[in-house]
Amino acid sequence: MPDTQFPKQQQSHQPGRESEMTPRPASAMESWRPAGKLTGKVAIVTGGDSGIGRAVAIGFAKEGADVAILYLDESEDAADTKRRIEAEGRRALAIPGDIGDAAFCQDAVKQVVQAFGKLDILVNNAAEQHTCDDFADIPTAQVERTFRTNIFGQMWMTKAALPHLHEGAAIINTTSITAYKGSPQLIDYSSTKGAIVAFTRSLSVALEKRKIRVNAVAPGPIWTPLIPASFEPDRTAEHGKSAPMERAGQPDEVAPSYIFLASNADSGYMSGQVLHPNGGAVVNG
Question: What is the C-alpha to C-alpha distance for residues 50 and 17, in angstroms, rounded to an integer?
Fold first, then answer.
């Protein structure tokens, strides 16, 4: 059974550091049994240093992919993830930078293609969130920053990757349960996640003729560094208890959705869809 008790804790750095969490998230895919689903593939995972992104990156490596992780500045977490990818016998690349900067996205994709020779899978996962109790008081800079990272960053990464993606490629975007249920303290964050759903559906139609599949994953309350980096200690300690399963999920419980969507053998007939690993919540859409 995954850890369900979290002591009060808080981090001041966004999007947070896994190395500072208690308990540490289950994000190493230690019980995953690989089947070679992604043998020979090359993937980029943004926000791949920790949390869901780390579990996805390691899961991809276990399935045979070489993986580049993009991260903001969490060098210790990124180095650990890179080491774990390489321990699976795969090539790894860790690139620090801000995906809200279109020029960085172009440069990062260029580095990956130069290092690995191609690109098959793009996972747009990096995000940030900031609470605000009264929307009348929300800082304009916060709204702009959240949109720049969460939705513009996905657009800039996709734009940079598309010239290198070919038939059979997959794009997987991370949205959130908040896109469907809303969140009174995370209105700007929830709005970006709703935009990601529309982005996913529209892009999937746009890329149909190129036979590039585009899907998304909408996690519920997952124990990642974003939680202590976003909420007060009391709320962090209660994280996930409002879910129907009455606990938070772990990154290892979310990553299989991404592996499924990345594998043409498993999800070749799916595009424009959203998977919902959310602890049992029933959502529309």
Answer: 7
* Residue 189 falls in the annotated catalytic set: yes
Phi, psi of 38 (to 5 degrees): -120, 30
Burial grade of 26 (CB within 10 A; 0-12, 13-18, 19 or more): middle
* Owner of token pair 């550091």: 17
d(Cα 259, Cα 110) in Å, to the nearest integer? 24
Cis-peptide, bond into residue 23, ω within 30° of zero: yes
What average pLDDT values come out for the chain (285 residues) when binned by 10 residues?
75 78 89 97 97 97 98 94 98 98 98 98 96 96 97 98 98 98 96 98 98 98 82 82 93 98 98 97 85
Active site residue: 180, 189, 258, 269, which one? 189
> Which pTM was predicted?
0.95
Q: Please state, in angstroms and rounded to a whole number, the distance separating the CA atoms of residues 28 and 22.
A: 16
**What are the CA-CA distances from residue 63 to residues 38, 71, 88, 124, 263 (Å)?**
5, 22, 9, 19, 10
Amino acid at 106: Q
46, β-bridge pairs = 70
